[in-house]
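Researcher: Let's do a round of design. I'm pasting the structure tokens now; please hold your answer until I've finished.
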């Protein structure tokens, strides 16, 4: 039978879910038998989280697909429907009566909601295309910055020609086209590098050993000119829930400015582990124009010095950042919880930007010490840690707020949700009802006229258990 006669069912067809629902009923009979008892999970095109226990493999053997074959086949049926319907992921909550009547609640994502953990939503982006404050920061001018004494395009080019005698270099027209695309002039050392080798995979004719030798000679995995890019802040994506907790460190004695990105960071290669190498045209006060820096794929803010120049990089002369002479400043990001600061007062200073109140074993805390702080933009508070939730309305500069469901309920009922917010999140415990959380999220999204999480119900009948 061809595909037209037997099309893939939709995500809203009960038959799509039936194999998975039978597995969930078999494993969670007692929970589903309780009044209002539900089983929840999430399935996406990139993975899934469903509460099914997997068989342990025999001692001495690694887990294999056959150890979870029933789960895999049932989930793949749903994932096939997601792909057909053009949906990235869906969260679900299912109720199954003993006789088999089934209500399957589906939560389809909103373009205004970032992915969360499990069935719960991530950050709610209340202002379209908004980014946290650190993503708007531009480099401070460094009018006195000059290239390092070691920067020598001629030595760089000669060294590379000796190492790569058969390399195909970029033409002046190709270099000029790259400058036009980027809107920035490439520094002389970078031009010298590409005149020796354009780092085009076609030139190696699929020879991985030749590519490896090339990387050894250049001391990195060099990008072709078409892949060179400027690492402005927007290229360093980070979900709001984490990005809002970051702060830019702009020290007056820095070698590298602690930014998210810069219009002067020209990325030209990779260290082989996912970290980007860039030529820095906007160095810190103690840095050099054209120094080589590395942007870690595990961090969202800042970069580290690799070499004072491209010449130094190729000649294996690593740079060293001088020790900081600056007087220690209180941190812009503070954490109040059982293992960090023990009071909000300890965190408060005029430069405080981010405050996170975490798991707490003392009496609830007052936000009064935060009033009037000029730079406070992020507040997160674990459920039950605040004495007077409506005080939040007096923090007029907040752009990101993360609270538990009860605290959000108080603000909504008091019409006290700060209108300065660009994004928000609901801090949930693992057993929180995802349907109630989605409804709460939709109330917040509605205040800004943002598209809601779409909630639908699929009904069916599994029949009585055998």
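Researcher: That's everything. Go ahead.
Model: Designed sequence:
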């Amino acid at each position: 039978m061809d595909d037209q006669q037997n099309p893939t069912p939709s995500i809203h067809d009960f038959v799509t879910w039936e194999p998975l629902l039978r597995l969930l009923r078999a494993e969670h009979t007692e929970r589903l038998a309780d009044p209002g008892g539900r089983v929840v999970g999430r399935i996406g095109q990139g993975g899934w989280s469903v509460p099914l226990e997997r068989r342990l493999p025999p001692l001495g053997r690694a887990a294999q697909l056959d150890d979870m074959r029933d789960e895999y086949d049932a989930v793949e049926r749903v994932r096939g429907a997601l792909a057909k319907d053009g949906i990235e992921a869906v969260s679900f909550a299912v109720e199954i009566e003993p006789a088999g009547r089934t209500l399957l609640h589906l939560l389809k994502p909103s373009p205004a909601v970032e992915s969360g953990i499990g069935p719960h939503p991530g950050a709610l982006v209340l202002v379209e295309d908004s980014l946290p404050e650190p993503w708007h920061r531009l480099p401070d001018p460094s009018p006195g910055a000059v290239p390092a004494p070691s920067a020598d395009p001629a030595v760089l080019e000669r060294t590379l020609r000796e190492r790569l005698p058969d390399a195909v270099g970029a033409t002046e027209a190709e270099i000029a086209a790259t400058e036009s695309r980027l809107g920035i002039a490439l520094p002389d050392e970078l031009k010298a590098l590409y005149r020796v080798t354009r780092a085009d995979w076609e030139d190696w004719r699929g020879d991985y050993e030749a590519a490896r030798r090339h990387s050894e000679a250049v001391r990195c995995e060099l990008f072709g000119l078409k892949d060179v890019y400027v690492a402005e802040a927007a290229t360093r994506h980070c979900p709001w829930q984490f990005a809002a907790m970051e702060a830019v460190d702009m020290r007056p004695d820095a070698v590298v400015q602690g930014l998210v990105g810069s219009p002067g960071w020209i990325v030209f290669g990779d260290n082989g582990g996912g970290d980007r190498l860039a030529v820095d045209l906007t160095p810190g006060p103690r840095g050099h124009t054209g120094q080589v820096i590395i942007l870690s794929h595990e961090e969202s803010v800042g970069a580290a010095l690799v070499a004072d120049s491209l010449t130094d990089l190729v000649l294996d002369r690593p740079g060293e950042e001088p020790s900081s002479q600056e007087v220690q400043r209180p941190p812009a990001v503070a954490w109040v919880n059982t293992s960090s600061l023990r009071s909000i007062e300890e965190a408060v200073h005029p430069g405080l930007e981010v405050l996170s109140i975490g798991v707490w074993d003392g009496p609830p805390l007052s936000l009064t010490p935060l009033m009037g702080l000029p730079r406070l933009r992020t507040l997160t508070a674990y459920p039950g840690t605040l004495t007077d939730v409506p005080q939040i309305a007096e923090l007029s500069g907040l752009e990101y707020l993360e609270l538990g469901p009860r605290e959000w309920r108080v603000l909504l009922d008091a019409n006290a949700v700060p209108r300065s917010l660009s994004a928000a999140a609901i801090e949930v415990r693992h057993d929180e009802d995802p349907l109630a959380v989605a409804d709460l999220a939709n109330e917040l999204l509605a205040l800004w006229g943002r598209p809601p999480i779409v909630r639908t119900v699929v009904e069916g009948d599994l029949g009585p258990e055998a």
